[in-house]
Amino acid sequence: MTQGLWPALLGRFDWQALPFVRAWETPTVSEIIGAGAASIVIVGAIGLMALLTYLHAWRYLWKEWLTSLDHKRIGIMYVVLAFVMLSRALVEAVLMRMQQASAIDAPGFVEPDHFAQLFSTHGSIMIFFMAMPFLTGVINYVTPLQIGARDVAFPLLNSISLWLTGGAAGLMMVSLVIGRFSTGGWSGYPPYTELAFSPDVGPDYWIWAVTLGSVASTLTGLNFATTIYKMRCPGMTLMRMPLFVWTALCTSILMIFAMPPLTVATALLALDRYLGAHFFTNDLGGNMMMYANLFWLFGHPEVYILILPAFGVYSEVVSTFSSKELYGYTSLVLATMAIAVLSFTVWVHHFFTMGQNANLNAVFGIATMTIGVPTGVKIYDWIWTMFRGEVRFTVPMLYSLAFMMTFVLGGFTGILLAFPPLDYLVHNTLFLVAHFHNMLIPGTLYGMLAAYHYWFPKAFGFRLNERWGRISFGCWVVGFYTAFMPLYVLGASGAARRTQAFYEPAFRPWLYVAGVGALILLGALASLFVQLWISIRDRDANRVFAGDPWDGRGLEWSVSAPPPEFNYAVLPQVAARDPFFDGKRAGDPYAAPATYEDIEVPRNSMTGPVIGIVGAALAFALVWHIWWLAILCALGIVAAVIARSFARDVHRTVTAAEVARIDRHWRAAVAEAKPIPRHIETTSANRGLAEVPA
Ligand SMILES: [Cu+2]
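Above: query sequence and copper (II) ion SMILES. Below: predicted holo structure tokens.
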């Protein structure tokens, strides 16, 4: 036996894997930044645990939140996760911008390898652990309420998805402290990420984090497609569903079909790395183009998984804050479906320059441009929804307007890139970086922030501070233009992407401007946290318990804020597209039901947390080749599933008397609240009861 005890126990771990040790041995700025980031993770984790212990919050957190199967709580936890990861990935973006601004004919302060880790984690986190949790959280919170359901089709599966995502995000955080992350970008292309070229743990962290995340998203897709098909309340036909539900449905279907190719790609890459298979190597029969095809067969639909829910949010927001019914509902539905289908037909545009036939490129170029048509239809419909409406410039509405202008601009540059000959010129430059940030920031981030401001009062029972919302909005928009417009210029001038240093002095002013933009974006995030803090501080002045602060249109506004655990005391029945809005105009939407019945809700379960945590530990063991731990964790997951299958008492009954008490308490509050007109809806007069114009 040449191997000692430690390798058997700790796999390929050695002290050099700790950034503190590296920073101690070679104290360069780059290493110190790495050690600093690691200490933030450790201090943050310890600080959080100490705080929770001090507040005696563990029991509450575990019983009320972490083991909860309530779709509303799961949704909120997803969004919290998204904000945490957004903070990290945005700081990384700022670091990269600062590095490039300081590295013109100079080395800068971040070493090339470290820089490569930064862009890899930034991309992987923003896509998989910021955008996906954010939209999954919003879908989780809103969809069942909008379709008049009590929960999702598979509540336990929902919790498992959340925890797998959380475990994967945790793995990303651990990679800051132990070992290193991949330098292969968010797409992890072989052969670079094969063992021969990246023998370290980095690509393994990437593989397992992404695998956990993609499995979770597949399950989420199945869960929500089923929920929307099967759990709609009586009368809620497909063509009466709110547009957000339509986009949630199309996103779910995209998840079902697009995530598995990614799982297959990462799994085959893992086989290459762990067992010496040669799926994607350049020899022994492998071919990396198979990876490119699999990855982008996921990757392009993924773009629309990210964007469609935001389209849904904008549809709700624009219609509510214009006090008008959505213009062109049917065309919006058709456009959503068209985009979902077309998104599968364009993936080759991600490797136009890899040497395939020009005719093939032309076909995929045309297919790509075609997506602009349904997207244009949507923009057209939103504009007509506002036309002659009583448009109120609230924060969610501002995000919607900024989105429309910015997204169209990004769309134009997308058409440029869809011309293969033009793509040859700019495909590997900052032009591309500018383009996809131009699509994803308004097309996902603004949408999710609009959703956050729009539904926050529903989720927590009080409104967010309007002034800080506007400050934050201003920073997001100004920051976006300042940070990314220069990248178009740089890219068109030939500045390569993923580059740690430049040798062209003419780039300097543009890189400086972009750097300032990144700082403004950081300011935008900071203002969001200030806003949250101030809003919580002033929550009593801004309560909207009655539940309808914006004169809403859909069912979700017809219950208290926050809604009771079971959502609806009596399942609603709908006869039109904007049931609650019409109800308010037609008569008394707050009439009490004649009778109440017992309601069954899912009991809390620790299966989700156990599978997520053990799954993350399994991934960690695989990264470090700690085989005993990997086997133990794999058995643990099987055991958890078997144990759960013996659970009998999985439901809890809320008695009719309890339902009646909760419902009557809310109705009493509604009766007492003073209806307020729209022009003072952002003041503290707003208690969540909308005045209905005569
Ligand atoms: Cu694409």
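The pocket of copper (II) ion is lined by residues 300, 303, 346, 349-350 (CB under 6 Å).
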